[in-house]
Amino acid sequence: MSYSGTVHCRHCYGKGHNRRTCPDYTEQIKTRAQRELDGGQGKDGYYGTQLAKRTGKYIDGSSATELKATRRGSKRRCSYCATSGHNRKTCPELKVHRATYLTENVEFRTGVLAALQTRGLGVGALVQTEEYGTPVLWLTTGVNWNALTCKNRQASAVQLQRLKTEGISRWNLTTSVNLPDLPTLVEHGFNNYEVVGPVTSSQVESSVPEGWAADAAAGFEDHFTKDVKSPNWHDNYYAC
User: How many Å apart are CA 172 and CA 34, to the nearest integer?
Assistant: First the structure.
């Protein structure tokens, strides 16, 4: 295909078709298949077979639908899991993963809320970091609860504001950081801060949107887009 979007045939150099659908190339194969037939090689010589794959018929007119190529003979695969025998709409693996997401999302959000209540990390909490060995105090000004899903555990959801601002660039007055490590919930979190002024459990919960923990479908459509692939896609593809 040219840069203008026009298809050019690599056999006859004509426009509007490719080599696979080129009528001139089909006639050329047909002529050679006829020569094979006339020469006693039968209908399924090399060119006879190529004709059958191309058109679904042997040179003598008999059916060869079992040989006709689809997409150059490649196996049709599900675009989600890369196995054959079904498509994305009926994919059993996708069905399981969708159901699992809904369950895991509630478990994750419920667990995160409980863990942050235990740590006292919520709006109004004081946290401390270090910069070049010097302690720096920050005020927690918000938590982007809606960014946190079972498939987005590393979201920079904790919003901080520096308390001591003298001599600090305006670009460094605020920041957003990930959740800290939370066993079974968040691995490789941001652990370079410590809650030194926790808030109460009820204060943590007061900033959580109503129904947040029970919202199983949060982030569902953003994750299961038409382009998303199964975590097993590559293993399935090369195993088939």
Answer: 80
67 within 8 A of 53, measured Cβ to Cβ: yes
45 within 8 A of 33, measured Cβ to Cβ: yes
Q: What is the DSSP letter of 89?
A: G
SS3 content of the chain, % helix, strand, coil (to 5): 35, 15, 50
Average pLDDT over residues 78-85: 90
Q: How many angstroms separate the Cα of 205 from the Cα of each of 52, 185, 201?
A: 70, 18, 6
| Unique residue bearing structure tokens 């709409």 | 89
Per residue in 166-182, pLDDT tens?
A: 988 999 999 999 999 99
Exposure on the CB side of residue 66, measured as CA atoms within 13 A = 1
Task: Give the HSE-up count for residue 122: Cα atoms under 13 Å, Cβ half-sphere.
Answer: 20
What is the C-alpha separation between 217 and 227, in angstroms, rounded?
19
Q: Which amino acid is at 17?
A: H
